[in-house]
Amino acid sequence: MNSAKIAVVGSGISGAVCASILARNGVSVTLFESARGPGGRMSQRREVSEDGKELLFDHGAPFFTVSNTEVLGLVQEWESRGLVAEWKENFGSFDCASTKFIDRQQEQVGKRYVGVPGMNSICKALCYDPGVESKFGTSVEKLEWIEDEDSWSLMALDGRNLGHFNGVVASDKNIVSPRFTSVTGRTPPLDLNLVPEMANKLQNIPVHPCFALMLALAQPLSSSIPFKGFSIKNSEVLSWAYCDSSKPGRSADSEQWVLHSTMEYARSIISQTGLQKPSEATLTRVSEELFQALQSTGLVPFEPFYKKAHRWGSAFPATSIAREEKCLWDEKKKLAICGDFCVSSNVEGAIISGMAAASKFKETLSCL
Ligand SMILES: Cc1cc2nc3c(=O)[nH]c(=O)nc-3n(C[C@H](O)[C@H](O)[C@H](O)COP(=O)(O)OP(=O)(O)OC[C@H]3O[C@@H](n4cnc5c(N)ncnc54)[C@H](O)[C@@H]3O)c2cc1C
What distance in Å separates the CA atoms of residue 122 and residue 117, rounded to the nearest whole number? Predict the structure, then answer.
């Protein structure tokens, strides 16, 4: 057992993987997450329809693929724990210009994996692995380096002292980014002056936004739609559609779809309404516009009984800042910065980065 205490900020897949690996190596890990539940962009959204029906949507990443052998090993372990399953449905493309579907089975993308029963299941399980203490609804507002003690002191948004730690894993770029200030009006938790050698890379990480539209339908769309996932070509508004309820382990009570907007559409809405949390009025407008775009394809001849939009202001990082090292690491301060923005803008990239951050700590455990 190692006496080191490590704080992990963020319960997205990179933070959750890192926390779980560290705990397995005997490190005492405390994970802080500002949201009420785990998963970050692999979250599951719980909604209730007007007639009181519970609706669960994977409103972030709909699935993930794996090509890296080490990640595959981890995913197979999750599969054996019942946290992950293959989503075996057929995918295609819909061309709005010709109003025709194109079968894309020829394009081999490998297995599509989903969390079971929701995309958040993996992070949820990892956040409760033995040795990980997770605190949800806890925003880390300040990461303070105490030079004399060689340790970090963490402060919560409500001013609470969250404790002292030998090392920190920061798994969200907003922890250091000026974008944090544009969204919240507050100073980012980590002062870049503390880590000048990382500052250049972290200062301005461009991101692509996306809106997701969650739909629940009383009748199935199977007669008009031959696929359970399809990209949408030649649309200025819509980019992808996924039949959420066709994933393994989901409730069969109603058919549920999640649509993704184009980045350009999301950007144009944000340029009109600002970076701050969108108002209900904005989300209602977006949900109407996305649904109208779907209706104009002729694929959905009836109204859903539930529809709601969600904004992902930073859905996809537009660059990778640590393609070689997979995470940023300050040996002296025992600070690791990880996340998809280090490797590639997908779940696999985030897992690789979380594993790399854990490796940095494992290599130096004896010094802690
Ligand atoms: C709409 C959409 C579609 C996608 N489609 C796919 C796909 O098809 N395939 C695929 O592989 N990937 C897809 N992705 C990308 C994938 O979801 C991400 O690459 C991955 O989930 C990122 O994980 P992460 O751990 O790096 O970051 P995140 O999931 O963003 O986790 C960071 C966490 O840190 C928390 N946090 C931040 N600041 C603080 C703080 N100060 N205190 C406490 N907590 C904090 C956040 O709340 C968040 O939970 C999609 C994403 C979106 C949004």
Answer: 10
DSSP string, 82-93: TSEEE----EEE
Helix (H, G, I), strand (E, B) or coil at 123: helix
Q: Which helix (H) or strand (E) holds 137?
A: none
* Relative orientation angle of helices 69-80 and 347-364, to the nearest 10 degrees: 100
Residue whose tokens read 């397995």: 24
- Residue 285 maps to a domain: yes
Supply 76's token pair: 């197979």
Tens digits of per-residue pLDDT, 209-237?
A: 999 999 999 999 877 899 999 999 999 99
Estimate to the nearest angstrom the gap between the alpha carbon of 335 and the chain centroid: 21
pLDDT in tens, 261-279: 999 999 999 999 999 999 9
Name the CA radius of gyration of the chain, rounded: 21
In a 10 Å sphere around its CB, with 0-12 CB exposed, 13-18 middle and 19+ buried, how is residue 47 labelled?
middle
CA dihedral (184, 344, 117, 74) positive or negative? negative
In this structure, what token pair is assigned to residue 106? 């020829």
Within a domain: 64: no
pTM, rounded to two decimals: 0.97
CA 132-344-170 angle, to 5 degrees, is 35
How many A from CA of 161 to the centre of ligand 1?
26
Atom of ligand 1 nearest to the CA of 344: 19
Distance 39 CA to ligand 1 centre (A): 7
Together in a domain, 359 and 279: no
Which residue in this structure is represented by tokens 């493309």? 93
Which ranges of 90-167 does DSSP label H, i.e. alpha helix?
A: 121-127
Do 298 and 365 have their domain in common? Answer: no
Spatial distance between the Cα atoms of 54 and 303, rounded to a whole number of angstroms? 19
DSSP state of 278: P
Does the C-beta of 314 come closer than 6 Å to ligand 1?
A: no
Our answer on whether the CB atom of 62 is closer than 6 Å to any ligand 1 atom is yes
Residue ranges making up the domain that contains 177:
1-38+120-205+320-368
